[in-house]
């Protein structure tokens, strides 16, 4: 059975470093795993009126429903995000909020998550990753522990073909392997492995 990994990129820009990192990371998943990018570009801003049963004159946007169903069909989520103003980008926070509702049917609940953050500076997206971890902690999402992945000075990590340098690639491969281990253990424990 193929295991489905959705990769969510915290940047909408087509040529972003986060997107380049994500495309590299997809290749690090082993046989039996299918990792693909789940776009968040077209998600309308979150509004609880869509999910409030007492508000009858609005309907849940189709984009919300499709996104939530894609998350629920996942065996794990890999987040790849830059840092914007010491936190996660607004588009990523919007996606987190959409997946967190309705209250009785949270798409993120207990889903294994991997997090790769980066920045063009020396901090490697530290603040964005810590803020993302804080948001995800509410949903009991197991994540790989140490070492976490903070990629500093991200523009320097790529060759002319947008492939990551050898050291960074090995570091990310180790992280993906540990993430896969969490997914495999969780699926075994649930009887779906």
UniProtKB/TrEMBL annotation:
Q: Which domain of life is it from?
A: Bacteria
The alphabetized UniProt keywords are: Oxidoreductase
Question: Which segment of the chain is annotated as a signal peptide?
Answer: none
Q: What EC number(s) is this enzyme filed under?
A: 1.-.-.-
InterPro entries for this protein = Flavoprotein-like_sf, FMN_Rdtase-like_dom, NAD(P)H-dep_reductase
* Domain NADPH-dependent FMN reductase-like: from-to ranges: 5-154
State a single Pfam family of this protein: FMN_red
The cross-references to SUPFAM superfamilies, in alphabetical order and at most eight, read:
Flavoproteins
Q: Which residues form a coiled coil?
A: none
**What terms describe the molecular function in GO for this protein?**
oxidoreductase activity
What PANTHER family does the entry give?
CHROMATE REDUCTASE, NAD(P)H-DEPENDENT FMN REDUCTASE LOT6
Protein name per its UniProtKB record: NADPH-dependent FMN reductase
User: Organism, per UniProt?
Assistant: Gulosibacter bifidus
Source organism phylogeny: Bacteria, Bacillati, Actinomycetota, Actinomycetes, Micrococcales
């Amino acid at each position: 059975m193929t295991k489905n990994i959705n990769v969510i990129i915290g940047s909408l820009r087509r040529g972003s470093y986060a997107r380049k990192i994500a495309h590299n990371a997809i290749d690090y998943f082993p046989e039996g795993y299918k990792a693909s990018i789940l776009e968040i570009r077209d998600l309308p801003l979150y509004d609880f009126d869509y999910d409030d049963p007492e508000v009858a004159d609005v309907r849940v946007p189709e984009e919300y429903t499709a996104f939530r169903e894609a998350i629920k069909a996942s065996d794990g989520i890999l987040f790849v995000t830059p840092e914007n103003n010491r936190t996660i980008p607004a588009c990523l926070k919007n996606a987190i909020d959409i997946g967190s509702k309705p209250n009785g049917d949270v798409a993120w609940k207990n889903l294994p998550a991997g997090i790769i953050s980066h920045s063009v500076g020396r901090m490697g997206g530290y603040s964005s990753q810590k803020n993302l971890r804080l948001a995800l902690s509410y949903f009991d999402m197991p994540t790989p522990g140490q070492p976490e992945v903070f990629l500093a000075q991200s523009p320097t990590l790529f060759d002319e073909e947008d492939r990551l340098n050898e050291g960074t690639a090995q570091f990310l491969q180790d992280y993906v392997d540990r993430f896969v281990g969490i997914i495999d253990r969780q699926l075994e424990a649930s009887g779906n492995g």
